[in-house]
């Protein structure tokens, strides 16, 4: 029989969630003018209440103050008029894998998110213009390609915001992923887990949080060892040469001086080592079109097999954020100092890369960013809330490489280059310091109870490899004509600086008359992207516990930024289409009641570009000539994308609940070449994942050990063979296939 919940116990568990849970209700969405959807709009599986003998007044006060400051911090950056998809803590735990699932796997359950190789995701037809925020503070871009610097385990909840964004969001605007971090108040206690299974998967982790007086703290660390670090270039069950070792740490320390003042510090470390999987049976060929029939081909034939190459890549990221939050009557302020360092290093197979690609290149890139973000809210009048602030980052990027190439000995009768087997070494290196900055002001005006108008201006600039700036007007209108229904429409002018760390500073002339020569020597500097973005939609509570929404968008771009892999190092390089168009729509629905939850999303999108006007040396001359006069699909364009999921919790009112959950991801296929660049798509696919979690309260009957969880997860339940990339397309370096059926089990223990 359930015991009544002590009021203080309720505060302890629920206070930090009151605001985040409350924004999920349609009524509050109407008040704030935010269209919100969630995979489970209202339900969380209730845990068995725990009796509390005594709680001090000091502890009670700390919890209430923390909830108050959390609410005020969230009000600094509302998403008025945008589309927001929420993941509560319960939603994250219901996804197969739970906290063990990589962050991109969780985000694939949101509408408009397409899956790509190397763990990348694309939101609403953009490449990588995804902004990550921790507790509302933006994290500068880094160089991580394969791994996830941010762990799902560190998130208490998170949201994905898309659409016509208000003025406070700048730089990366395809989607804003805001992670509300765990802390010692809402996530006190510890948890140790071991997770693993197929393909040498071994994943131990540890987390602990607590609070004492005015301090609270939380830290989590894990280690990942497996043989599925990067997607398999073949459809086989196991990849060749795909070992990965990764470790991560994230910590959060806060000091609450009083009910109006809080200082917090967040730090993270990620270190990941990858083997690049091999693709057997590849032909030996490089820049020389007639290489296979040359004397050099006969000389090296048989000296190396593509199945035995040994290429590796290492990625490191460290970051820190120090924030001050202050309440001053009608004014709320948060100011943060941010620093991030990331590096990426590629080690080739010295002979294999030379034989297959004509260049064996040790490549290293790094970027260090530091800066400040300040946001201020002034509740000027009952109908007006004014917000303004700024972001500014100083960045230093360094790129260097040491390459071995064949020396060109002449040309054949057709004008093709010939090589005699002699090699030479080429060192290339560049470094540059620059900065990006943005400031904004906006007014949230409510002329009527059911109408909100949010309008403002944003000014952004970049002084790095490129130098440009822009003033961007933005406006969103939200109307709530009846209970449970919300309409919104908005326009935003966007300015997106090119990714500083991905703009190549290669000195192309050094590679002239070698096997490492590019297809052409055009190298116009990458420019900032400028967009007109239109978005409209509505959300409706159809029946109690059943919600649905529809959203449509159009982006008209000038100098649209895209990224691709060119060469063996898995280092993305940026380039521009002079003109770009992206349009699409999304439909999402969810139902949740008691032990049962179900949700589904599907989206249609088209992203096209015309005339590549920067970093042209990465492209074949024939492709450049065609694209200069024709619209083409960008390589990450996927026409149809869908996701769905559900869960059921049995015995939820006992001390041993059993949860069964499942998710689905469908993609109509990313682009590949046909007779024209990106003229076709890879075959469509659908995959299903299954999760089973058995929990036991106080299994060991001790005061120290609490809930125990046994977990079984199956990825790609029906073992579907599906292709993410075929190896052809603009900026596509190699084929990649999705993960075959993988069974993983684990045990976690709270204490």
Structure overview:
The chain is 9% helix and 52% strand. It has nine helices and 35 strands. The protein is globular and about 85 Å long. The N terminus is likely disordered.
Task: Give the beta-strand count.
Answer: 35
Low-confidence stretches: 1-36, 40-56
Number of contiguous helices? 9
Rg from Cα: 26 Å
- How big a fraction of the residues is strand? over 45%
| Gross morphology | globular
**Sheet having the most strands:** 22 strands, antiparallel, barrel
Helix content: under 10%
Helix/strand/pairing class, anyone?
mainly beta
Distance between the termini: 24 Å
User: What's the overall average pLDDT, rounded?
Assistant: 87
Could you give the topology of this structure?
Layout: H1 7-14, H2 18-22, H3 26-32, E1 35-37, H4 57-75, E2 83-87, H5 89-94, H6 103-107, E3 113-115, E4 121-123, E5 130-134, E6 137-138, E7 155-162, E8 175-181, E9 189-197, E10 201-212, E11 215-226, E12 244-258, E13 261-275, H7 295-300, E14 312-328, E15 331-347, H8 352-357, E16 359-381, E17 384-411, E18 417-448, E19 451-463, E20 467-482, E21 485-496, E22 529-543, E23 546-565, E24 572-593, E25 596-612, H9 621-627, E26 632-633, E27 640-650, E28 658-667, E29 671-672, E30 680-681, E31 685-696, E32 708-715, E33 723-726, E34 735-737, E35 742-750
Parallel strand pairs: 1-2, 5-8
Antiparallel strand pairs: 2-7, 3-4, 5-6, 7-8, 9-10, 9-35, 10-11, 11-12, 12-13, 13-14, 14-15, 15-16, 16-17, 17-18, 18-19, 19-20, 20-21, 21-22, 22-23, 23-24, 24-25, 25-26, 25-27, 27-28, 28-31, 29-30, 31-32, 32-35, 33-34
């Amino acid at each position: 029989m359930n015991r009544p919940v002590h009021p203080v116990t309720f505060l302890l568990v629920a206070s930090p969630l009151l605001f985040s849970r409350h924004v999920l209700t349609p009524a509050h969405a109407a008040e704030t003018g935010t269209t919100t959807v969630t995979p489970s709009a209202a339900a969380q599986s209730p845990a068995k209440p725990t009796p509390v003998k005594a709680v001090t007044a000091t502890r009670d006060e700390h919890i209430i103050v923390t909830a108050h400051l959390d609410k005020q911090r969230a009000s600094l950056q509302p998403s008025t008029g945008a589309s927001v998809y929420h993941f509560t803590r319960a939603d994250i735990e219901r996804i197969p894998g739970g906290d063990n699932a990589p962050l991109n796997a969780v985000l694939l359950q949101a509408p408009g998110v397409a899956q790509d190789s190397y763990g990348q995701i694309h939101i609403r037809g953009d490449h990588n213009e995804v902004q990550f925020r921790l507790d509302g503070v933006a994290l500068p871009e880094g160089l991580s390609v394969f791994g996830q610097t941010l762990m799902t385990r560190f998130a208490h909840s998170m949201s994905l915001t898309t659409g016509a964004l208000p003025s406070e969001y700048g730089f990366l605007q395809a989607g804003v992923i805001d992670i509300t971090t765990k802390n010692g108040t809402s996530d006190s206690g510890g948890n140790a887990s071991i997770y693993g299974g197929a393909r040498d998967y071994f994943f131990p982790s540890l987390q602990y949080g607590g609070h004492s007086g005015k301090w609270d703290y939380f830290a989590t660390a894990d280690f990942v060892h497996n043989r599925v670090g990067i997607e398999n270039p073949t459809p086989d069950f196991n990849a060749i040469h795909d070992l990965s070792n990764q470790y991560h740490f994230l910590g959060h320390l806060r000091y609450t001086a009083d009910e109006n003042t809080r200082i917090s510090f967040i730090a993270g470390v990620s270190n990941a080592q990858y083997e690049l999987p091999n693709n057997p049976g590849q032909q030996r060929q490089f820049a020389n079109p007639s290489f296979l029939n040359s004397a050099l081909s006969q000389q090296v034939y048989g000296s190396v097999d593509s199945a035995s190459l040994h290429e590796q890549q290492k990625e490191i990221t460290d970051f820190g954020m120090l924030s001050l939050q202050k309440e001053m009557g009608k004014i709320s302020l948060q100011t943060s100092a941010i620093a991030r360092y990331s590096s990426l290093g590629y080690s080739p197979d010295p002979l294999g890369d030379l034989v297959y690609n004509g260049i064996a290149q040790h490549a290293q890139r790094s970027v260090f960013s530091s800066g400040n973000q300040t946001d201020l809210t002034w509740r000027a009048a009952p109908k007006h809330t004014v917000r303004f602030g700024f972001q500014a980052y100083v960045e230093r990027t360094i790129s260097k490489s040491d390459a071995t190439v064949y020396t060109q000995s002449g040309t054949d009768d057709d004008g093709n280059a010939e090589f005699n087997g002699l090699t030479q070494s080429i060192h290339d290196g560049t470094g540059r310091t620059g900065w990006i900055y943005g400031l904004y002001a906006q007014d949230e005006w409510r002329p009527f109870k059911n109408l909100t108008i949010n309008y403002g201006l944003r000014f952004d600039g970049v002084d790095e490899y490129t130098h440009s700036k822009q003033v961007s007007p933005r406006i969103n209108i939200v109307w709530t004509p009846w209970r449970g229904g919300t309409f919104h429409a908005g326009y935003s002018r966007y300015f997106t600086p090119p990714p500083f760390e991905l703009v190549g500073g290669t000195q192309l002339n050094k590679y002239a008359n070698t096997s490492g020569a590019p297809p052409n020597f055009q190298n116009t500097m990458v420019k900032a992207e400028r967009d007109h973005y239109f978005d409209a939609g509505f959300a409706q509570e159809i029946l109690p516990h059943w919600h649905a929404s529809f959203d449509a968008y159009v982006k008209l771009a000038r100098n649209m930024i895209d990224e691709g892999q060119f060469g063996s190092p898995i280092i993305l390089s940026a380039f521009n289409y002079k003109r770009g168009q992206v349009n699409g729509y999304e439909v999402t629905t969810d139902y949740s009641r008691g032990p049962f939850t179900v949700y589904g999303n599907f989206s249609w999108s088209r992203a096209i570009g015309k005339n590549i006007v920067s970093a042209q040396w990465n492209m074949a001359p024939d492709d450049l000539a065609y694209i200069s006069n024709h619209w083409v699909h960008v390589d990450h364009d996927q026409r149809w994308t869908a996701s769905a999921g559900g869960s059921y919790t049995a015995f939820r009112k006992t001390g041993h609940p059993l949860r069964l959950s499942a998710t689905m991801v469908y993609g109509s296929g990313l682009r590949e070449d046909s007779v024209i660049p990106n003229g076709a798509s890879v075959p469509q696919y659908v995959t299903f994942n299954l999760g089973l979690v058995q929990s036991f309260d106080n299994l060991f009957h001790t005061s120290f050990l609490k809930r125990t969880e046994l977990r079984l997860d199956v990825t790609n339940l029906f073992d579907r063979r599906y292709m993410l990339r075929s190896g052809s397309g603009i900026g596509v370096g190699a084929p990649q296939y999705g993960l075959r059926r993988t069974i993983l089990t684990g045990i976690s223990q709270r204490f």
